Amino acid sequence: MASSGFSWTLPDHPKLPKGKTVALVVLDGWGEANADKYNCIHVAQTPVMDSLKNGAPERWRLVKAHGTAVGLPSEDDMGNSEVGHNALGAGRIFAQGAKLVDLALASGKIYDGEGFNYIKECFDKGTLHLIGLLSDGGVHSRLDQVQLLLKGASERGAKRIRVHILTDGRDVLDGSSVGFVETLESDLSQLRDKGIDARIASGGGRMYVTMDRYENDWDVVKRGWDAQVLGEAPYKFQNAVEAVKTLRAETKASDQYLPPFVIVDESGKSVGPVVDGDAVVTFNFRADRMVMLAKALEYADFDKFDRVRVPKIQYAGMLQYDGELKLPSHYLVSPPEIERTSGEYLVKNGVRTFACSETVKFGHVTFFWNGNRSGYFDETKEEYVEIPSDIGITFNVKPNMKALEIAEKARDAILSGKFDQVRVNLPNGDMVGHTGDIEATVVACKAADEAVKIILDAIEQVGGIYLVTADHGNAEDMVKRNKSGQPLLDKNGGIQILTSHTLQPVPVAIGGPGLHPGVKFRSDIQTPGLANVAATVMNFHGFEAPADYEPTLIEVVDN
User: Fold this and answer.
1) Same domain, 386 and 457
2) What's the domain range around 111?
């Protein structure tokens, strides 16, 4: 919490004026990688971004968007949109998701907290259900954390445990789910040897079962509810490894789209429905794809689908997934306290702010940008606009998404003269990149570039300043590679498509007629990352950043 001598007033920048309109554009999933045919940004026609890169080298640079630069445990951890926007908005680096959970598990603190003690009340008579993504991808969850939680819970009195798995194939290799299920089955078998009734109870692919986000498609969550809670699914198996192998072969579905299944006993009865008196933990640490299930598990007056039966349970998330909604109300690990974000500082210093994206990334330019906080800081000075995303199709079907609409809203906000900062997220590179469709991702990158042009043209008209950046990589590399960087091939000789984010750095480009001619990027910051952007933006508004912020990327040299 801010100390008693604390002031929201930001000092004026000694050389940069106030009052310039600043456009802040986040290209989602837009990293920098070697130019080849799997780099969709390179292949696409992107004249605007090309001109920013090649036109003024002292006003274009790369920053880190993964690993420790965004608060994740290691340099092997790819960035994601949540931690990326947290860092962009907070101007400081906070221990995030996986890292918070790792610390709590390593210290044992997780077992002393209110959340664990709350679910523990059910261990004596009820079943402990664990629901989440089973993989070592490290974006939403991690297998080793589930293994530690199983061990810890069983040592602390859980007698009956059911695991409801969601297969990945998006942040990890498609087909790898079989190995993860085999590993989990081996652990559960060891628990059974110790007299604990521990089994897998249900499953399904993450994009078809449970893990929808931003209320895009509640049917996805309902399929999960039916399998996990009601114990009902179109496919029934006695063994989870057999379930995944058979469904992959027979339905031709990839891991992320496996249909829901339940595990049944010899008599065909589901082995693990959720009933009164049970405890449920959703073990993903990343929030966005757990919020909808959390609502279904927690809300009494839930109306998004017919839950049929609503068991009286004690439910906790691995983390709290939405701080404003206080959802869930119980959680095993406390979130990073992100206070004094750049957005709050700027609004309190009179900077009128407009933020816009489409549904799939609207939360990123608002909630995550503002330190995991919903709503306005001061609604007299802020306007947030959400454009509905396409639903019922995968994003490669319409790869332009809503880039044009977002750009037009931004343009209108800039030209209105009502706002000092106009902040947008253009989701195309990320959302279409995740589909693994290279041709569609090329189209997506072109659409994003065209949107940037509309925004920069408006900034030109009002004599403003722009900063264009990204939150992490994705579209710049669409193929899995070996250690020497060569594309990996599958057993049929085809390339292995990369659908996940990457470890690549992302660009920061600055300019506009309102930018002081003496502004250039500094060369004295060791390894700049996304968190350095906030102080830079504050400078563009005519302010110095708070002392504890990561340093600004720019300096002003006298001509």
Assistant:
1) yes
2) 98-317
Q: Is 287 annotated as a binding residue?
A: yes
CA angle 506, 507, 511 (to 5 degrees): 160
Q: Let me know if residue 55 belongs to a domain.
A: yes
501 is in an annotated binding site: yes
Average pLDDT of span 261-283: 98
- Tell whether residue 541 is among the known ligand binding residues: no
Q: Do 46 and 150 share a domain, yes or no?
A: no
Last residue of a domain, one of 252, 284, 317: 317
Q: Indicate left, alpha or beta for 440 from its phi (over 0: left) and psi (-120 to 50: alpha).
A: alpha
pLDDT tens, 428-439?
A: 999 999 899 999
**What is the count of structural domains for the chain?**
2
269 belongs to an annotated ligand binding site: no
106 and 74 in a single domain? The answer is: no
Among residues 81, 254, 389, 500, which one is catalytic? Answer: 81
| Strands annotated E in 320-400 | 331-333, 353-358, 382-387
**Do strands 22-27 and 421-426 pair parallel, antiparallel, or not at all (unpaired)?**
parallel
Active site residue 7: no
384-411 pLDDT, tens digit each: 999 999 998 899 999 999 999 999 999 9
Does this model's pTM top 0.70? My answer is yes
The answer to the question of whether 156 is labelled as a binding residue is no
d(C-alpha 197, C-alpha 546), whole Å: 54
Whether residue 468 is predicted with pLDDT greater than 70 in this model: the reply is yes
Tell which residue, 133, 131, 128, has the closest CA to residue 151. 128
Of 546, 272, 217, nearest in space to 388 by CA:
217
